[in-house]
Every structure is written in C-alpha cells, then in structure tokens.
C-alpha cells in the first residue's frame, strides 16, 4: 500500500533479534530432542544407539503414560470450563465497578506473583489434614477430614484448585487490560441507546475482547500441557503416580531412571499432542470468531 | 511512568553496587594465606608453582540438620588449602536430592562436573565411571595406604578400580519413644511377632505405632526392604539384576503383604502418603507416634534440642527383629554416599595434588570419629566398636552401637543392587500398596516386568 | 434498587478477594507465632503474643537480601530486552506489508508457545556451555529473554492488530518512516499491553526455578526461588520461620506490582486521549 511499510532493511532489523533468539532457544533444542527421542541414550554415555520408534511404542503401551495424559486433559478441561468463565465474569465485574477498582486489580493478581515453590508450601499448609484451612472450614459444616494430597481421589482436584488459584488473576488482568482499552464512546453510546449492563457485556465488550480471550484459552491449554512445577511441589506426581502429568511422567520415568532417550520421546509427544489440540481449537472455535474486528 | 522508572533504575543501581560489594568481601576472605613451603612430597621444592588456582567442591550439607557435617568439611577445606600453595577451594552447596537427581546428572551429561562432588556410589557412580567421567583414585589410595581401611568400597568400585569414597556409613532400624515404653511397661521386641503385638498395644492406646512419610517412596521402602530381607533372605536382592531371583518370589510377596497388613491395621497415620520426610520425625517429636523406621543418620535430629525439643534423650533405637527368636539379625548397612572426583582433574597435576590432599585430610580416623561424635554418622572406615562406644556417651548413640554389634548379616539397600528404573517401579508399587490400590502379588509382578525390561536393555 | 445493583458486584468480588487473600493472612499470622504448636493450636487467628524473631532469623539465615537483588536485576533487564525485541517483531509482523513472510514467522513463534521448556533444559545447558557463560548471570538472562519472546509477541501482536489502520495511514502521510511509526505512534499506543507483558515476563523471570538452579552454582549469584527452596529444605520443620521467609519473597513483588498497575490505567487514558 505504501512504501514506508515496505522497507526490507527495517523489516529485517526488526525481526532478526527476536527470531534468532527464538531459533536458538526453541527450534534448535526441539531438533535435539527429536533426534534423541529415537535413541536409547541414558543421558550421560557417549555411545548413542538409535532404536527407531521403540521409545514411542513403549510409551503407548504404558498404562501410567495414558494416566498422565488423562491428567493433562483434566487440566485443560478445568482451565477452559471453570477458569475461563470465571476470568471473563470477574474481569467484567472489575471493569464496571467504580469503587475499589485498584484494590481488586492489585489483589486478584497477587497469587500469580508468587513462585510456584512458595505456593506449594503455602497450599501444603492449607491442605494439611490436621490443622489445614480446608479441613477446618469443611469441619464447620460437619464434613469429616479429607486427605487432600494423600488420597488419590482428591489429589488431582486439589492441584487443579491450587493451579486455578495461582493463575486466574493473571488472566483476569490480561482480559481487563483489553476491556479497559475499548474506547469509552462505544459503551457510552450503547448505554444511551438503553442497553442494560448485561447486554453491553455480551453484545459489545465480550465480542470486542474475544481475541484476548482466545489468547487466554490458548495460553491455558499450552500451560496445562506444560504444567509440571505445581505438581512437583505439591505431590511429586503421587500418591502412586495418580497426579502425574506428562511432564512429571517424563521426569519420573526418564530423568530419574537414566532414560534420557525415552524422556525426549515423551517431550516430543507432549509437543505433538499440544499442537494437535491447538490446531483443533483453532479450526473448531477460533475460526468462527475471527471475523470480528474493530 | 518516569517516577517508577527512576525507582527501578535506582534499585538496579543499588543491586549492582551490593553485588560488587559481596563479591569483593568474599574474595578477600578466600585469599590463600599460605606461603607454600610445605607440601613437597617429591623433593622438587625449588620450583613450587604457587600461582592461584581454584577447585570446586559440590557438597550437600545444607540446612540446620547438617551444620556439623558442614563445619567438618570446612575444616578439611582449610587444611587442604593450607597444604597446597595457590589453592582456593570453592564450596558449592546443593540440596542432596537436587544434586543427585538433577544437577550432577545435568553436569555429567554435559561432561563437566565440579572437581570434587557429592555422589551416591551405586548405581550413580558406576554409571559415571563407565563413561570415563570419574577419576580413578586407586593409585592415590595405594599411595596413602587407605585402600584397606574401609568397611566396604563396593558401591564405588567398577572393574577393580575405585572411583569414590564413602563419607560415612549407616544402618536402618527403629527409633522409638523410650519414655513411653517405660511408662507402659513395653520392651524392645525380639521377633517380628512381638513387634506386631507391640504395634497393636500402642494402637489400642490411641497412639500411632509407626511414624512414616510416604510422599517420597524410599521412606516406606526402608521397611519393605528390611522385611523381605528377613522373609526371603538378604541374598535374594543380589539376584534380581542377573535374573537368578524374581520379585514374584512367594517370600517377597509375604514381606510386602506384611507391610500392607500394617497399613491396613492402621499402624501408620492416615494420610501419611502425602507427607514430607520431616513430618514423620515431627510425629515422633510431638509424641504422636511411638516408633519410626529410619536410617541411623536421623539420630542427629533427636539429639539436637532445636529440632527435637523435649524429646532429646528420650529416644532409643533397635534393629528390626527377626522372624524367629534367636535367628541372626539382618540389617541394611551400607556406605553409599560420599565424594567422587572429576576425571578432568587428571589433566592438571596441581589439581591432582589438591584432590590427594583433600582425601588425606578428609578420611582420617580423627575425622571419622569427629563425624560420629558431633553428628552421629557411623564411620565408613574400619573401626573398633569399643573405640566408637567411648567416643560418644549419648544414650541414643549407645543404642545404635549396640544395634551395630548385634548385626548378624548386613546387606546394601536394594537401590544399590537394581537398576534405577526398577527402583522407580517399586516406588510406584509401594505407594499403590499404601493407597490400597493393588495387591502385593500384582504389585510385584509389575516390578518384575520392569526388572525384565531393564535386564533386557542392559545386555 | 440502584444501590443494590451497585453492591452485588462488590459482594462477589469481595468473596473472591477473601479466597485470594486468606492464605496470605494465614502466612502473615503464622510468621509472627513462636513455633509449630502455636500454629497448629490456633491456625487462623492472631497469636496471643507477637514475635518478630522469625523475620530476623529468616533474613539472616536465608540471605534473602542477596537473592532478592539478583532476582530483581535479572528479572527487570531480561523483561525489558524481551519486550523490546518482541515489540519490534510484532510490529514488523502485524504492520509492515510482508504478509507471507510474516505469516510464516508468526506461526513459527506461535509454535514456540507449545514447546515444553522443561524438556529443553539439557540442550540449552549445552548451548550455555559452548558459550562458556555457565555460572554467570548471562546464563539466565539469555534464556529468559528468549523464553519470553513467543508470549510477548503474541500479546503485543494481538494489541497492535486491534489498533485502527487509519492512525498509521495518517502518520505515514505526515512523513513518518516505519521506524518512526513504531517508536512514535505504535509503542505509545501499546503501552497498556507493554506494561502487562512486562509484569508477566518479570514475574516469570522472578519466579523461574529450573534454569536458575541448574545454570548457577555460586551462592552469591543465586536468585530468590532457588534460595527459597534451599531455605525450605533447610527449615522445613519450622513453619513459622518459613512463613516469614515467604513474606520476604512476596512483599517486594507486591509493591512493584502495586506501583506498576497504576501505569496500566494511566497508559490507557493516555492512549485513548491520543487515539
């Protein structure tokens, strides 16, 4: 359209620094990982034997691996079905209140500024069966103590709650920034036209911030697929592997057991599964909303 | 925007100033103050090179419970620095689990471990040694006359060469609340049945018989390992790797079933599957639980008022008793944790000298006894039991010495005898047992499957 | 009726705040209690007597000051660099007229979001070794900058895309070059997004554990999370002292966030006035 925006030199200067770093720290390591995934390397030896797809076959035949995949799916479902609606609702609420806006905004974000290690310690207190907050509160309603992190039926949900506690505020702030960036005139015009708060939210605000919500969902999925730290600090994948996600499965069966090649094949599988899910999401859901622009 | 930017800039400035300050003060402290006239073993005193050089020691003496061990190491470091001209030793402290499972492995994979590092003998050291990453210290030991002074160097030996030295030894057995035993008229059990009855009595009294924290599976596996060594005999563990024996052996099943029985009878605290190591010691310290299977190293906790509070002096120790009265006592006893050295050291004669000096200062009777006295670590070097007894008059230590003297047959911990992936499978299995998800026979079938796979891969 | 309508959102928000803040209060209360028994017997109330010994012990034992400043400057520097690089790339990709190349570059970077960084530790360790910067702060800054790029690009690109095209048309007619357009028009308009991304990147760096644990060994170079985990391993039976350590590690970021979150609103106002 115009010359100013077609300057190859400037384009290169702008693209290269980030892109080179990206290639060095993402693409190159991925190739290394893919290469290693076809070996029986123990992570230390200089002799590396290529064994074809054996590692992948082993993983596919392992019940524990599929259990970890299932836990990743729980992570995704919980993020998309529980967290995302909460994120949108609370963002809208905060955007529309006049009083305490700063307080809310600062406060909701607070869990996200803590390192996962610290959160693990903190929620360890809360889930403590004897004097933890969770059981004390439930005790008021006459619920007998729940062994949150020791009981395989509760451990996963405990982790999901903690994870949601940590990250919901983080995404709220993102969506909130987008809502606040919407030109005031639009909302005011709608208000003059007699639209209710609910109508304004669903007809104007949400469609306008859809790109960001879409990003939030994508980030949640990617985050859910990569989740490891929170599991490690809370249960180390236990009890008996019931909270293993793919990333911790990889650590448990590969790194700790000197099976580096196998570990890399799990990393490759995590990568492939994530791509499949994201592409599915893009095709099924994202395409429909893409036309909306402002 | 400007104001906060200024604030940040100021903070960065302050930060870098602080850093510079820290660096400086540290260097000042470490400047080698020796003249380098000594340390001439081969008569070449004329041209001693005393230009500064540095080696790093990776150790795992982090935290309150290891402060004595750290002090001991620091003294050895000082002696070594004084003896080698120009040498500065940098101490690098990393948590033991992190070092073993992550950091050292990463460094080994990259081929660049620190010059001296904390390492587990088997299976870790053997694997590293096989790749030529660890220094063969056999010649040094020959020269210093240390080779035959150790109880066992098996975990650190590969093809007749020695690649590391254990820092101390340990046994596994029961710590128990002596005061409670006296009050209730209970006595130390002589058979497993008596131990069973004891647990039943304690349980009926409303206390927890056994403290245990199973978030890390190696903790309950101490009990399991000792149980199967009684039921199936300690030799069985040596045969798993070669395929001569099987995990599915009915006696191993019986042992796991015993452990499960204790779980089912409520001898452990409910929910302990999610507890950290420290929790079980807390159960003993608070008097909530009465007995605890742990390594002898735990004595340092119960002898320190800061950690054990009122319980200091009230804790005793006994071996897990045999099935029948009078049978030999079978106990896990090993010396698997110690120091190894990077093979890269061999390229630099001055670093070699530093390593030699470190070994010379670290593995002496004096240091071993000091470790025993201050920290309750059993010696890794051969030592007269009587001499040990006179070193520490602490009643808990006396109990442990007595336990050592009672040992009929000792065996190394199972994880030193089987592949890492078998350990992973067994760890998973014992947690499933405790969680009530699986039967012993089925669990051991899974372990045997992992064993078969590992054996096949090893050939 | 109107008053009720105004209070309902506050009721929900306050309930949410309670869930968020109560654990913090719990830690705060625990940090001024004398010992574990004190916490166990009265976990949620204020203690009878308040003691600050835990803070003194934590500060002395955990060397939090050193770790804190290391984390701060590594976090800020890396976050700034990644935003600069990411904004440049996002601008080139969304605003410059090289749609085909841009689409490829952008898709590739999008892919980066999906790569499990945990598993790339060893290859990255290898790179650091070749560059011979292990055990220096550079070994963290480089990967931190790189790790933040995909996320920053995606967010900034989303914001830049949403800017109306007329702005730049007008600017280009006024005679601005593309670099000028980037620096004078796009960046100021993107400030809210930049601040958000900065906070997120900074926090990611501030809390990063794995690389910091692997790539540095000198104690004086350590960052806060590594220091905190060491602290936990060392004092894991002393909940009161650990709570004090948690407060130390959390308070500084809370203050920084409280300062910066004002800027988001400021940025939005400034942006809308200009737009």
Automatic annotation (TrEMBL), chain A:
The lineage's top-level taxon is Bacteria
Give the keywords, sorted: Cell membrane, Membrane, Transmembrane, Transmembrane helix, Transport
Q: Which residues form the ABC transmembrane type-1 domain?
A: 69-281
What SUPFAM superfamilies does UniProt report for this protein, alphabetically? MetI-like
Q: Where are the transmembrane segments?
A: 9-31, 73-95, 107-126, 164-183, 204-225, 266-285
Where it mainly occurs, coarsely classed, is membrane
Mode of membrane association: Multi-pass membrane protein
- Places the protein is found: Cell membrane
What family classification does the UniProt entry report for this protein?
A: Belongs to the binding-protein-dependent transport system permease family.
* Name of the featured protein: ABC transporter permease
Look up and give the organism this protein is from: Paenibacillus vini
TrEMBL record, chain B:
Q: Does the keyword Secreted apply?
A: no
UniProt lists compositionally biased (Polar residues) regions at 28-43
Swiss-Prot/TrEMBL keywords: Signal, Transport
The residues the entry assigns to the signal sequence are 1-20
Q: Where is this region: Disordered?
A: 26-47
PROSITE patterns found in the cross-reference section = PROKAR_LIPOPROTEIN
Pfam families hit by this protein = SBP_bac_1
Task: Name the InterPro entries for this protein.
Answer: Bact_solute-bd_prot1, SBP
Q: Which family does it belong to?
A: Belongs to the bacterial solute-binding protein 1 family.
- List, alphabetically, the PANTHER family matched: ARABINOSE-BINDING PROTEIN-RELATED (PTHR43649), OSMOPROTECTIVE COMPOUNDS-BINDING PROTEIN GGTB (PTHR43649:SF29)
Listed name of the protein: Solute-binding protein
Which source organism?
A: Paenibacillus vini
From TrEMBL, chain C:
Residues annotated as signal peptide: none
Pfam families the record matches: BPD_transp_1
What is the membrane topology noted in the UniProt record heading this document?
Answer: Multi-pass membrane protein
Task: Tell me the compartments it is located in.
Answer: Cell membrane
Transmembrane: present as a keyword of the record? yes
User: Of which family is this protein a member?
Assistant: Belongs to the binding-protein-dependent transport system permease family.
Name used for this protein in its record: Sugar ABC transporter permease
Organism encoding this protein: Paenibacillus vini
**Gene encoding it?**
malG
